[in-house]
Amino acid sequence: MSAVGVTPTAVKKNYLTALKEAIFEEMARNPNLVCLGEDIGILGGAFGVTEGLLAEYGTGRVVDMPISEAAIIGAAVGLALNGKAVMAEMQFIDFISCGFDQIVNNLATFHYRTAGEVNMPVVIRGPAGAYGGGALYHSQMNESWFCNSPGIKVICPSTPYDAKGLMKAALRNPDPVLIYEVKELYRRRDLEEVLPVEDYVVPIGKASIRREGTDLTLISYGQTIYHCLTVAEQLAQEGYSVEVIDLRTLVPLDEDAIVESVKKTNRALVVNEAPRTCGFAGEVVARINELAFEHLDAPVLRVTRLDTPVPWAKPLEMFVLPSVESIRATALRLLKF
Amino acid sequence: MRRYTGAPDKRGIGHIVETSLATPATTTIKPRKAKDGEVNLRPQDALTPADRMEMLRQLYLARYFDVRLIKEKKRGRLRGTLYSSHNQEGVIVGSLFALQPQDWISPIHRDMPAFFMKDLKSGWNNPQRMGMSVEAVCAQVWGKADSPGRARDNWSHIGSRAKRIIHSTSMLAGTIPVAAGVAYADRLNGGNAVVVTYNGEGSTAQGVFHEAVNFAAVHKLPVVTIIENNHWAYGTPTRLEYPLEDFAERAKGYGIPGYIADGQDVFEVYDQVSRAVQHAREGNGPSIVECKTFRAYGHGDHDDDRAAKYRPTDVVESGRSRDPLGVCKATLVEMGLLSQADADRYKAENKAAGDVTDDDFPKEIVDYLKIGVEFAINSPLPEANEGGMWVFREGK
């Protein structure tokens, strides 16, 4: 409640609300934007990201799709070919595998195949990530499949501000953009923040430095950012100055931010919750070796999920995923190298 | 094998005609004249004599294009694989003739002539017509820089937003959901375009076929799914692809009409596709049109000499015997639109590609393609560094 002439206390918003605001604002801004997905209309989305969208924009632009991921992506390609922009929701990012061919062979290659004649302003987004007991098929971080498929930009925001700004940037981008929304962050109270009233975007392809430091760079994205921040705080109490970089965008990768940090700290540890072999952490390690080898005082290491699926029972799940303890132990190994 | 012809009944399925087992359609359909009081019994009854003669010309053009490519390929002048449309041209010509300029198509590997034959009705040399030029398509076949996609992907993997041709990939049936999306966008824009997709019967076993046809049916999208049923998916016969005698029966499961045409009869293809297109344009939604046909050669030119492993010689001879050029000419002679002497003047039908010569085709056809081939030969190869371009519209 606010009295006349008194500025109301700004409302803090969570990650999910930030995503929702971005979609609503872009639907209002771009009459050519069409939303496709399972249960996104009548239900408002499995998590409520599109709650109210159908009432606002009608069945023409908000389409409750059959359980048909390949048709969702294929139809998105057709809509884009015929002049529309599309937001396609995967109910869980795990289900994206059911639309895999349409994404990697059709959507991602369209601009390339047509020598630039046709671009594909299609955003695919969905809830992702483990640590919540979702088990094998509601916990995945399968981003490396798509980072390895040229033609798709890949994003993973970790804060409400970034979630809204990157979603808006993606919905305005002329190319396919895949957004990994971290569902464990959707409603986390401690992340809630006041979002700008004015329109803003967070540029695709720019990392953010979440904590400055001089002794070691922790590079991560998604919810393991918070594990890294905790480790940095713990190590600060032991006298180490640890920098934390949130990549935010995986493709295209902000190499400059990584290299600048490594030049300063001379040590780097990459953390993500995807499996180890051919995971994106390995790609970051390779880039550092290619671009900043002469600045390194220690090998670049990784902390990732084990090369396993994500199991259900809590001790099993925590065993295979990166933890504050495992990140801290590896960080100390590097700091003492 | 049962074969359906003629007008759809209440279920959207045509009359049943019994034919011999295991061979493609062999019954010649005689055009039926309208009785007093009956107008336009079939869509083809509204065709003018000039229309019918134009369809014959287009059959010659499609055949000549294919024959020329087969010869060029054998001489080692083309890269990749040629998927011959020989003996299946009735499906291409008959279906394209049923469309309006604003309509979209998605041809696949065996429909190479469709890229430049779309909207030929608007003038073979009319640059404004809603089809690619024969020069552009030849440049693509030759892998040159002037192809619509600058030769970045091969053969049939081209398209044009401007000409309303959907770009395909090698993943079969994958253009049907794209067609549905194109149709959905057209509806949002207030358009009245119909989107026609071409598919082999083998591709119907793909999951995306079901997903896309179902989605189109739910939203009554104007998507016509043509099945070019040539009875073998590469080397696998239909009995190992789906458990139906007529694939179009499956339409019932989607709550949409299934039409069946003798794919060797260009006029019957025109009939059934016209019905499907009308059904779509009037807002009644998608349909499946099964065109029963027979490919003259192997799956691709790489397996011509292995095709005998899965297609017995007598079946091949029988299938080839109903050549769409010959069937069309016979109809035109019977209707009195073509003299027997004129029909015999250019005998391209029932001949293997290696046995026909330019003299078997009207000179205008030979000349038309000659311009395209010369353009392709003179077009440069793309610059090597283009291989790294156009991954994204914005940024690298």
Features:
heterodimer; A: about 325 residues; alpha/beta; Rossmann fold; 2 domains; 5-stranded mixed beta sheet; 14 strands; about 20% strand; B: about 400 residues; 5-stranded parallel beta sheet; two-stranded antiparallel ribbon; about 35% helix
Describe the structure.
The complex is a heterodimer of chains A (337) and B (396). Chain A is α/β, with parallel strands linked by helices. Chain A is built from 12 helices and 14 strands. In chain A, strand 6 (153-155), helix 7 and strand 7 form a beta-alpha-beta unit. The N and C termini of chain A lie far apart (57 Å). The mean pLDDT of chain A is 97. Chain B has 396 residues and is α/β, with parallel strands linked by helices. Chain B is built from 12 helices and 9 strands. In chain B, helix 1 (49-74) crosses helix 2 (89-96), helix 1 runs antiparallel to helix 10 and helix 4 crosses helix 12 (363-378). Chains A and B meet through helix 3, helix 4 and helix 5 of A and helix 5 and helix 6 of B.
The main pleated sheet of chain A reads as: 7 strands, mixed
Helix content of chain A: 25-40%
Largest interface: A-B, 45 and 45 residues
Helix content estimate of chain B: 25-40%
What's the gyration radius of chain B in Å? Answer: 20 Å
Q: Give the overall form of chain A.
A: globular
The overall pLDDT of chain B, averaged over residues, is 91
Short description:
Chain A is an alpha/beta fold.
Strands, helices and their partners?
The complex is a heterodimer of chains A (about 325) and B (about 400).
Chain A: E1 12-13, H1 15-29, E2 33-37, H2 53-61, E3 62-64, H3 69-81, E4 85-89, H4 100-107, H5 110-113, E5 122-128, H6 143-147, E6 153-155, H7 160-172, E7 177-182, E8 193-194, E9 208-211, E10 216-220, H8 224-236, E11 242-246, E12 249-251, H9 255-265, E13 268-275, H10 280-292, E14 301-305, H11 314-320, H12 324-335
Parallel strand pairs in A: 2-3, 2-4, 4-5, 5-7, 6-7, 10-11, 10-13, 13-14
Antiparallel strand pairs in A: 1-8, 6-12, 9-11
Helix pairs in contact in A: 1-7, 3-4, 8-12, 9-10
Chain B: E1 2-5, E2 15-18, H1 49-74, H2 89-96, E3 104-106, H3 114-117, H4 134-141, H5 175-188, E4 195-200, H6 207-218, E5 223-229, E6 232-233, E7 236-237, H7 251-254, E8 258-262, H8 266-281, E9 287-292, H9 313-321, H10 324-334, H11 340-345, H12 363-378
Parallel strand pairs in B: 3-4, 4-5, 5-9, 8-9
Antiparallel strand pairs in B: 1-2, 6-7
